[in-house]
Please model this.
Amino acid sequence: MSGPDGGAAHKLRLANLWRFVIIKHMTGIMRWLDGGPHPPYGAAACACAGVFLLYALTLAPAPTWWDTSEYLATAHTLGIPHPPGNPLFVVVGRVWSVLLSPLGLPPAVRINLLAAATSAGASFFFFLIAHRTLVQSRGRGPAALVGAGVAIVVSATAFTVWSQSNTNEKVYTVSLLIAAAVSWLMLRWRDRPGRRGSVLLVVAAVYLMALGATNHLMSVLPVGAVLAFILLTRPRLLVDGRFLSRCLLAVVVGLSFNFFLPIRAAQRPVINEGDPLCDGLVETAVAIYSGGAAGCPALASSLRREQYMKPPVTRRMAPFSHQLLNFAQYFDWQWSRGIDPDEPPARARLPFTLLFLALGGIGFFAVWRGDRNTGAYIAVLAATLSVALVFYLNFRLGYSLSPEVTAQRSHEVRERDYFFLLFFALWGILAGLGLTRCWLWLGDRVGSLRRASPVLAIALVPFFLNLGWASRAGDYAARDWAYDLLNSMEPYGVLFTNGDNDTFPLWYLQEVEEIRQDVTVVVVQYLFTEWYAKQLRELTEPGRQRPYVPVAGLPYPDRDPPAGAVVDLTDRQLATVGDGRLPDTMGVRIGDMLVEYPKGMEVRSGHRIALSIIRASASERPIYFASRDGEMKEMGLSAWAVSEGLAVRLHMRNLDEAPPPGYRRTAEGLGGEWFNYPRSRQLVDEVYGYRGLRSREIWQDYSTRNIPYGFYRLTALLGALTEAEGDPETGLRYREMSKEFLHAYLGGSRARRERAPNISVD
Model:
């Protein structure tokens, strides 16, 4: 029979049938993915959310020092950062920023949150790995969930992991996420022996590493552990033609993301480091899939990072024993960085270092005991991320080690702990597992896990002892310094910088906040490359030179854009510029001054091009340097330097004969240098910002202390000159400001004063 009721019953039967099919299908998918007990994905997601919240609460609201500004600017504009170009990060960063834009957050916050999200994502997989280990060695139950959470707390609050996760200083948090995901995929494959389709988990791991290589080669570091794991678990897989062909396809597809580099370079973005432009598809593909060994020269050079001229590992830049000591120094920071402000290994930190070293060893024993193949995977991975990486990186003397070696170029320019981010995250997991094993053992002895639970408070030691040093909340120092320096220059100025740290924040301000885009920032070190001078010429030629847009409070009159580019040399002329000793005395006339370089003096190519830029631009553009030292001193131009706020202006005349009104020369005890007194006062009082620079409790990175020192020196000199002008009240105000900057230079109000040299302004 049919009818209304019969039709409804038929529809109900069909609905139930479809429901049965869907449920059965989804159940099959879950069994295929898991191949065993269902992992606690919900608990892992909660741990991930908690870690993300921690990083978000301590997030940098603006760019921080070193590469942060470069990566923020390139992600915001789809530019190309320094070699090898990091295309995966740039594209993901841009997409991420666009997706978060409806929240109304500043671009710096949005992209810094990417670091927080990727590190938190790694915690998701690490939680699952830790839980699996505890289940294998102890059995199921709430204890395994608690132990996995303890491991995440220790790992997420290790100093380098934390400090790299609340600002996008590097692209390594993306690699951390990839390494954690690869490790979890391999363990799931291990837990699904012989199941149909399980090999696809290994192929997925290979794909992630290949794709991650377009972010940074750090993503490939698990490959040794993956190979060892396969050899121990199912060695025949390595001679399986179908599996190998799938892996090859995964590598080809993953590495194809590098095609972004020449495609974007052809569109001529403002930040286009290495200029990896190629003429054709074939030579581009050869460069990508040969790892830069052949093919398109510009792209191959970028992928090989040829710009940095790193020597082969067989030529050690420092004794290997010293490089291992440098690694031990960074390990010493991870668990109690804030207990002692000194950078070398400290006696106060030693008990905590030994404690977490021992806990990590106990944790590794727990992994080994639960599954020896997994133990072998962790052992190979840990060795790769530590000793093998130390050997490969081949650092010079540590920045803060071997102070008896005073030659600056014998040391690294900064601390390099971020290279070991993956190891410290992994060791934090092992230490958390070790602490959990101690808790379980103690619980057996006292008859109750609850009574033994106070021992788990050890997991909070890194949180409390690293909080002040790892947190970047409220830190606008790099952003405000860049704002102050850019606005120290008159319209269409040319600013020569000394390196990354006094360049990238300026790029951020120009490309992201679009402030003072008229200023041409020249990185002198980049002038030693083949591509940079050509880019400067291209970016400043008429029609592409960006206009001067006044900022509130600036004392500068508007002016017409320059009629020529900052570089007037042709490609052929640039190709002939080289290093060498002068065969005769060389005189370079710039305006009214003649700069002479004696016969036999070594003049490098980058400095020759810089002098050419000054000569070509001086008639239309004011010339500035970021400091009197560094490149200005090396080019022999310090005698014509005049301080104007934070910047140092190159004046093209003899100031001793007829100094402009308002210019003052400081006393010999203060350097005997020329100083634009009224301009500097106006900038300090009406234009500059000082967030994160004054009243600073901790200045974490001692390699950037020249920044607060520049403010200290400026305000101290203003104080002395103002008092000499007969205004002691204003002079006292400047001196009080200088004390605040001096405290930051000395490491902040919470750091030891005696660790820095004694400085006096009297």
Q: What stands out?
A: The first helix runs from residue 4 to 34.
